[in-house]
Write a structure and sequence with these properties.
Blueprint (H helix, E strand, L loop, with lengths): L1 H5 L5 E6 L3 E10 L3 E5 L4 E5 L3 E7 L1 H4 L18 H8 L4 E4 L6 E8 L3 E6 L3 E6 L5 E4 L28 H7 L4 E4 L8 E8 L2 E5 L5 E5 L5 E3 L2
Antiparallel strand pairs: 1-2, 1-5, 2-3, 3-4, 4-10, 6-7, 6-10, 7-8, 8-9, 9-15, 11-12, 11-15, 12-13, 13-14
């Protein structure tokens, strides 16, 4: 599909993503895994795997002026998700995975199929690459919530070292109380009892066991 999307570079587009999210803007660049859309305020780096449909619309209909500056995360060669994440490491970002809220902070580590992210609200998080829908680099020098550098450590203290894969990282959290998928649903908060064959046994607040398919775990952090 890369060649199909590339044909509309510079056009005004309406993109529907999984989760019924819609983004309008100018299509700036297309890679094998990522496309860049300018929405009038920010450059949005969208994972193409989450695109349900894209339509070309009239430039007048979106009410957005064409960008006058280049995207913040410059790439010398073809766009890929891993290259974008590597370039974005340490940059203040807004990222989106699911639900009605974005996460603000910065990437601290990139592994095989997930990355570590430091949020002033949630602290250290582990986020599955397959569930990352988009990221937006901050367009100003302001920090998230205008916090001081003391609240945004360059190397956040974390006693849990990073495993190569998301699945092994979840195994390392066995015995810990965790919040999954930002805790939007109550049953996504509990203690990891065990992880086996891509199934996680989570003990809820009432002491009941819930068995979760790890393919549907988007984010995880310690409360």
């Amino acid at each position: 599909m890369k060649n199909v999307y590339s044909a509309f570079t510079g056009e005004a587009v309406m993109i529907e993503l999984t989760g019924k999210k819609v983004i309008n803007g100018f299509l700036i660049e297309v890679g094998s895994e990522v496309m860049i859309v300018y929405n009038g305020d920010d450059y949005i780096y969208i994972s193409t795997s989450h695109i349900k449909s894209m339509s070309v619309v009239s430039k007048d209909s979106i009410g957005i002026d064409e960008p006058s500056v280049s995207p913040q995360l410059e790439q010398e060669d073809q766009l890929s998700l891993r290259k974008i994440l590597t370039t974005a490491k340490g940059v203040f970002l807004e990222i989106y995975t699911t639900g009605n809220q974005s996460i603000h902070g910065y990437i601290t580590g990139i592994m095989n199929n997930y990355f570590a992210f430091y949020s002033p609200v949630y602290k250290t998080m582990y986020i599955s690459l397959q569930h990352l829908k988009w990221l937006i680099p901050y367009s100003t020098n302001l920090s998230p919530y205008r916090l001081s550098k003391e609240n945004l450590p360059v190397n956040p203290s974390n006693s849990i070292t990073l495993a190569r894969s998301f699945e092994v990282q979840l195994e390392k959290l066995s015995g810990h109380l965790v919040v999954l998928n930002l805790g939007v649903q109550e049953e996504m908060i509990g203690k990891i009892e065990r992880v086996s064959d891509n199934i996680m046994e989570l003990i809820t607040a009432k002491g009941e066991s819930t068995y979760l398919n790890m393919q549907h775990i988007q984010t995880i952090h310690l409360p």
